[in-house]
Design a protein that fits this description.
Keywords: Membrane, Transmembrane, Transmembrane helix. InterPro entries: Prenyltransferase_related (IPR050475), UbiA_prenyltransferase (IPR000537). It is found in: Membrane. It comes from Streptomyces nanshensis. It is a multi-pass membrane protein. The protein has a single domain, classed as Farnesyl Diphosphate Synthase (Orthogonal Bundle). With 287 residues, it is an all-alpha fold. The N and C termini lie far apart (43 Å). The longest helix is centred in the N-terminal third of the chain and has 29 residues. Helix 13 runs antiparallel to helix 14 and helix 14 packs antiparallel against helix 15. The chain is globular, with a radius of gyration of 19 Å.
C-alpha cells in the first residue's frame, strides 16, 4: 500500500510539475496572507496550510489531466516530457485519475468551505479543455482569468471572509492575467498551428503579440503600485516591494521583446510565474 501511494504521488507530480508555480505555490502564499490577516494560531495555521496545499494540488491536477488527455498529440510536439508521452501513465490510468479528482476536489472544497469556487473551477476547465475554449485566444485568456478568481477567492475564503480590498487584489490579478497569459503560447506556436489553434501569437502575429505583451508588462508598474502597494502606506519595505515589482516587470518587457526562441520564451513564462508568486507573497505584509 505505501508503495502504491508513493507511486500515485509521483505520477501526480509528473502531471502537475509544469504548473506548480502558477497554482500551488502562489495560491498557498495567498492563504498564508489570509492566515496572518485573520491572526490564526500556529496549530490552526499549520492545518490550514496543509489543507490548502492538498486543495490546490487537486485544483491543478484535474486541469492537467484533462489538458493532457485531450492533447497527447500536441504534447508530442510541444511538451514531450509529459507522462502520457513518456509512458509514466497510460491513457486509461489518466482517465481513472481524472474521475477520482472530479469527486475528491469538490469534496475537499466542501470540507474547507469553498465548494462554490471548486465547482466554478471544474466548470471553467471543462469549457477550456473539453469544449474547445482553448482554441480561441480571447476565450482561452478569459477562462484562465476567471480561473484566477476561483483560485484566489478560494485561497482567502478557506481562512476568512473576503473583504473589499481583497476583492480588488483578486480582480486586478485576474485582469492582468488576461493581458499577459499569452506569453505561455509564444513557445508553442509550431504545435498550436499544426492543431489549428488561434492562440494570441498566431492570431496577432509574433511581433504584434510581443508588443502587446510588453505594453501589458509596462501597465503592471502603476497598477500594482496603486492597487496593492500604495494602500499599505509608505515604508522602506513597501518601497522595496515596488522596486522588486518594477524590476520584474521591466525584465519581462526586455525578455518578451528581445528573446524569442522557444527555449527563451519558456524561461520568460517562468519569470511570469515568479512575478505572479511574488505579488501574492507580498500580500502577507500588504493586506
Amino acid at each position: 500500500m505505501p508503495r502504491l501511494v508513493w507511486r500515485e504521488i509521483f505520477v501526480s507530480y509528473r502531471f502537475n510539475s509544469n504548473d506548480l508555480y502558477s497554482t500551488v505555490v502562489p495560491a498557498s502564499c495567498f492563504v498564508v496572507a489570509a492566515i496572518r490577516h485573520a491572526g490564526l494560531g500556529p496549530s490552526q495555521a499549520a492545518s490550514t496550510v496543509a489543507g490548502a496545499v492538498a486543495y490546490f494540488w487537486l485544483f491543478i491536477y484535474g486541469s492537467s489531466l484533462i489538458n493532457q488527455i485531450t492533447g497527447v498529440e500536441e504534447d508530442r510536439l510541444n511538451k514531450p516530457f509529459r507522462p502520457l508521452v513518456t509512458g509514466d501513465s497510460t491513457m486509461a490510468g489518466a482517465k481513472r485519475r481524472l474521475a477520482a479528482v472530479h469527486v475528491l476536489f469538490p469534496a475537499l472544497g466542501l470540507l474547507l468551505g469553498v465548494v462554490e469556487w471548486a465547482l466554478l473551477w471544474q466548470f471553467l476547465f471543462m469549457l477550456h479543455y473539453a469544449w474547445g475554449g482553448h482554441r480561441n485566444w480571447v476565450a482561452k485568456n478569459l477562462l484562465i482569468a476567471l480561473g484566477v478568481v476561483s483560485q484566489l477567492a478560494a485561497a482567502w475564503q478557506m481562512v476568512t471572509p473576503i473583504t473589499e480590498p481583497v476583492w480588488w487584489w483578486i480582480a486586478t490579478m485576474a485582469v492582468m492575467t488576461f493581458l499577459i497569459i499569452g506569453v505561455q503560447d509564444l513557445r508553442d506556436v509550431e504545435g498550436d498551428r499544426t492543431l489549428n489553434r488561434r492562440t494570441m501569437p498566431i492570431a496577432l502575429g509574433d511581433r504584434r503579440c510581443r508588443r502587446c505583451l510588453a505594453g501589458s508588462f509596462v501597465l503592471l508598474l502603476p497598477v500594482t503600485h496603486v492597487v496593492m502597494v500604495a494602500p499599505a502606506g509608505f515604508h522602506w519595505w513597501t518601497a522595496a516591494i515596488d522596486a522588486a515589482l518594477a524590476g520584474l516587470s521591466l525584465l519581462l518587457v526586455w525578455r518578451v521583446l528581445r528573446l524569442s526562441t522557444p527555449a527563451q520564451d519558456h524561461r520568460t513564462q517562468r519569470v511570469v510565474e515568479w512575478w505572479y508568486t511574488f505579488v501574492l507573497a507580498t500580500a502577507v505584509v500588504l493586506l
